[in-house]
Structure formats: C-alpha cells, structure tokens
Amino acid sequence: MQTIKQFQKAKPLLVNLTKNLSSLNFVPEYCEPSKNDIENFQLFVKKSKNLFVLTGAGISTESGIPDYRSEKVGLYNRTDRRPIQHSEFMNHAQRRKLYWARNYVSWPRFSSFRPNTNHRIFSQWERQGKVLHHVTQNVDSLLVKAGCVRLTELHGTSYKVKCMDCDFRLSRDSMQLLIKLQNSFWNVTSNELAPDNDVQLTDEQIKDFKTPVCPKCKNDRLKPEVVFFGDSIPKQTVECAKEKLSKCDALLAAGTSIEVFSAYRIILQAKELEIPVAILNIGRTRADDKADLKINSLCSQVLSKITF
C-alpha cells in the first residue's frame, strides 16, 4: 500500500517533467487554407443537419502525438519501426514483456497529453447538435477528454486494459500501479514517443522487467483494449458505425489518410448511401477520388473558422 501512495504522489511530478520536455514538431508541412477553401467548407458544414465525423491521428498531432504516415514526421517516414502485431502479443511471452516494459515507460508522458483546438471544436459541435455521431481511429481518448459523447473509438482506447483469459478489467492508470508493484526495483526512463504509446528499449534495459500478471487468473495476457494490427474490429463496433452513418446527411473525414480499410470502408458506405463527403487532411488520402470536397490544410486552421 505504501508503494502505491508513493507512486501516486510522484505521478504529478512526472507529468510536469514530461510536459516541459522538448519534442519534435509532429505536424507535417502544410499550406494555409484559401478563402475559397473556407467558404466551401463553411457551406458543406452549414448544409448538414446530421453530420458524421471520421477522424484520425492528424487531429492529435497538434497535441504533440505523432502519427504514422505523414511525410517526414510520421513514424513510418522517420524510422523502420512498426507497431506490434496482435498474433505476436497473444502468442509470445517475450513480446508481451517487451510491450509492457515500453508501454509502462511511455505512459506518464502519453497520458499527460491534452485536447487541442480540433478536439474541443468537435465537442462543441456535438453539444450544439451539429454532429450526430463521431468515429475516431485514435486510441488516445483526447476526444473523450474534450467531452465528446456521441463517439465510437473504432480501434479501442489505450486507457482501458483487459485480461484475454478471464473477465478481469482495469483502467490503464491502475495498470501502471500494478506494474509498479510487480517491478518495484525496475527504473527505466525514455524521452521518446510513438503514436501507439511506445518507446524503444534495449534487451539489457528490459531483462529484469517482470511481465504483469492478471490479479484474478494469474495469467500474463493483460492487453490494452486496443485493436492491434492484424486483429479484427469487433462486429458490433462496425455495425454501430454503419447504423449511425445511415442516419446522417454528410460525412467529414478530418486528420486521416484513410489508408486503413476500417476507415476507408466507412467512406465507401457513405458513397453507397449517396452521402456527400468532405476530407480535411494534410496530404493525399486513399479516398481523395471519393470526396466531394477536399481541403489540404491543417485541421485547426479550417475548423476554427467555421460558424453556424
């Protein structure tokens, strides 16, 4: 119990330290939106009475969280690293050990990030009745922190953890305490950051780390409630998004390259329903040829100019 109290007292200090650390600018190069862009986007939003919003990592880069694919600044363009695969995590104890060691080190910084203008605007639009539903590919829960309620986190959230062998669940903050209790003498730090709350650690750094075990069944397959690469999105989540889309009269995709099929499928469904599509994103997207309106600019520079 004393260890938990000590960690709880230390956490605010860790958060303050991480806030002051200098970091890379993860927003890619962009052009200012033109007057015509703003006018067209204003008209698109104004016409909609029940807007469906689809968002990706591009709305969170302004909070300091990198994305995967942006030119020069995305993880895939800066490094040769790739996220852990679902089968790796489920089938290999060493991979689970590596994952949780890195995730544990990254969590104080990752969990300290706060909503930016984009998250706050979407929350405001929801309160004003403009947004009927919002589907995000992000697992950072910044939209939840901003107050969004009509929300489906398509790929889950980093803020919840579940045991894959029993029905035990806990918050990610509680998971941090659990790991701390099971690794009271392990102390590794890193200033690195990745989109999936990950950092790079050496074999030497993790050799003494103990993989956290479930307090209920004692197995070590505790996993964030995140859809890892190679896994499938739950059918009920897919059906919920499809049902909500059918009740909307326009779709806005913001801050997403729409490369992942789970997002692209939503665009295809909108076209089948003859729902107009607007895309707001820096750079090319997979669905540019499906868009009725495409604006190549920073999300907040456009969203902040919209009134209705």
Describe, in plain words, how this protein is organized in 3D.
- The structure is a single chain.
- The protein has 308 residues and is an alpha/beta fold.
- The protein has one domain (2-7, 34-303): Rossmann fold.
- The chain is built from 12 helices and 9 strands.
- A 6-stranded parallel beta sheet has the order 3-2-1-7-8-9, with helices on both faces. It has a 3-stranded antiparallel beta sheet with strand order 5-4-6.
Concise synopsis of the structure shown:
39% of the residues lie in helices and 14% in strands. By secondary structure, the protein is of the alpha/beta class.
Whole-angstrom Rg: 20 Å
CATH fold group: Rossmann fold
Strand order of the largest sheet: 3-2-1-7-8-9
Structural class: alpha/beta
Low-confidence regions: 1-24, 70-77
Number of domains: 1
Name the CATH superfamily classification.
Answer: TPP-binding domain
From the N-terminal CA to the C-terminal CA, the straight-line distance is 53 Å
Oligomer: single chain
What's the CATH C level? Alpha Beta
The major pleated sheet works out as: 6 strands, parallel
Total helical elements: 12
Percent of residues in beta strands?
5-15%
Anisotropy-based shape? elongated
Helix content: 25-40%
Record field, number of beta strands: 9
GO molecular function, one term: NAD+ binding
Protein name: Deacetylase sirtuin-type domain-containing protein
Keywords: Metal-binding, NAD, Transferase, Zinc
Domain Deacetylase sirtuin-type: 31-308
